[in-house]
Amino acid sequence: MSTPLLRHFIDGEFVASTKTFANISPVDGRLLGQVCEADRPLVERAVAAAKAAQSGPWAHYSPSQRADLLLDIANGIQRRFEAFVAAEVADTGRPVQQARTLDVARAVQNFRTFAELLRQSGSELFEMRSADGNDVFSYSVRKPHGVVAIISPWNLPLLLLTWKVAPALACGNSVVIKPSEETPSTATLLAEVMQEAGVPAGAFNLVHGFGPNSAGEFLTTHPDVDAITFTGESRTGATIMKAAAEGVREVSFELGGKNAAVVFADCDFDAAVAGVLRSSFTNSGQVCLCSERVYVERPIYERFVAALKAGAEQLKIGYPDEDGVNMGSLISHKHRDKVLDYFQLALEEGATLVSGGAVPQFGDARDQGAYVQPTLWTDLPDHARCLREEIFGPVCHIAPFDSEEEVLRRVNDSAYGLATALWTRDLKRAHQLSRRFRVGMVWVNTWFLRDLRTPFGGTRLSGLGREGGRHSLDFYSEITTICVNP
Ligand code: NAD
């Protein structure tokens, strides 16, 4: 049986290239299909199409027409909802239920939210009196940057891609997207939706491939790319930042995390246990916001560790479409090797293994997949690499603490600064402590709850800039101030 070939989408048309790579299922190691890999000339074609669109019909869309188009795209995804779910599940091995309620639902929401925000967004106007007595008006207008390169990761492929595509198009840019080589399918479906929705040729382009010496590098180093928005590893961000320095292009980075959950003794115990289970094991720990470091106030520490162990051992790992499945596979065998290396390293660094730590055995095709058990450790010293480096798997370390100042110091003692989750009933403490964490986001008695109008992003190794709401509109726009002396 022949397997599908995923193609690029350039200037309004699907385009094949001769070089291809395999798309492998992380559930059972099966070949899902082949994916075309863009070489430099093909990426140049995509950028040229995007640039040309800036002086074609796309350039004449009013904000209101762009908002209508975003709604058409949202409706197009909604119409093919189950096809998107199936594609995301096949590439990632995640539970079908998650793809339905999070990945694809949020993709639709991303387009709807930015359509609405675009309609509501205005601009600033200031009045002043000039030295010669005239009333002078200064106002600002938003214009697109031009060509925006969008490079996205594999962990929430469609969600994170549309989080950037929607506001970039809302602001009138042309985009060239490069999805992760691990998850090419939903991006290709999105290109079909763009075509069906009548997005003008060249406004949306897709190239497939890898990072270094492949489509990712060819795109980010292209001089006609005006801005780069990237979600992925901090190290890749640093490489892209160097590329963006040539020509002083705008960048927006959402990078890695080594996030903490902090549980005070006064918390709602059951809610905190359920919350930390979610924040450590959602998407098999492959969310940049997942908690890999859990600090628990000493009076409830032993009880909390026992409850978390019981909860982790009840998680059902399995096929994406199994009833009640909580955890799927990791994204790939390569990523599993990395996670298993950390499992080994943790023991060398002195960890006590509380639960998991191995590859589950199923006795069926899943043994060819990329599964690992949800894993809990205690007793690592604060300087352990397993507590300082992002692992990006279903794993967390639990440590006791005795005071607010102590836990604040330990949470902030990290090169990353993405998110912290705080569990306490003392709201005064929650407000005061939250602003002292060196992170972009703090959740109090919840986790991963997102109002898409709020700023999102991290500090230090976790990123640069904020996206979300008007912050996205700001990043994807070039703002010109016009000063009029009547
Ligand atoms: P990655 O950096 O390996 O790859 C991300 C993308 O960059 C892929 O499309 C890849 O092909 C491309 N790429 C790699 N090298 C490149 C290069 N030299 N030039 C141009 N493009 C290049 O990341 P990943 O493994 O796909 O994703 C996991 C990482 O993403 C984790 O670190 C996670 O924390 C992070 N992440 C962050 C956020 C956030 O919002 N802060 C969200 C999701 C994921």
Characterization of this structure:
This protein has 486 residues and is α/β, with parallel strands linked by helices. The chain is 38% helix and 22% strand. The protein contains 14 helices and 23 strands. It has helices spanning 40-53, 63-79, 81-92, 96-120, 157-170, 185-197, 215-220, 234-245, 269-281, 298-314, 333-348, 404-412, 427-434, 469-475, and strands at residues 5-6, 8-10, 13-15, 20-24, 31-36, 125-129, 135-144, 147-151, 174-178, 204-206, 227-231, 250-254, 259-263, 291-297, 352-355, 375-378, 395-401, 416-417, 419-423, 441-444, 459-460, 463-464, 477-484. The strands form six sheets. Strands 15-16-17-14-13-19-20 form a seven-stranded mixed beta sheet. The chain has a six-stranded mixed beta sheet with strand order 10-9-8-11-12-22, sandwiched between helices. Helix 13 links the parallel strand 19 (419-423) and strand 20 (441-444). Helix 2 (63-79) runs antiparallel to helix 4 and helix 2 crosses helix 6. The longest helix is centred in the N-terminal third of the chain and has 25 residues, at 96-120. The radius of gyration is 23 Å and the shape is globular. Residues 151-155, 160, 178, 180-181, 210-212, 216-217, 220, 231-233, 236, 239-240, 254-257, 288, 390, 392, 418, 458, 462-463 line the site of nicotinamide-adenine-dinucleotide (NAD). Pfam families: Aldedh. Its EC number is 1.2.1.85. It comes from Pseudomonas piscis. GO terms for molecular function: oxidoreductase activity. The active site is at residue 254.
Search tags:
single chain, 486 residues, alpha/beta, seven-stranded mixed β-sheet, six-stranded mixed β-sheet, 14 helices, 38% helix, binds nicotinamide-adenine-dinucleotide
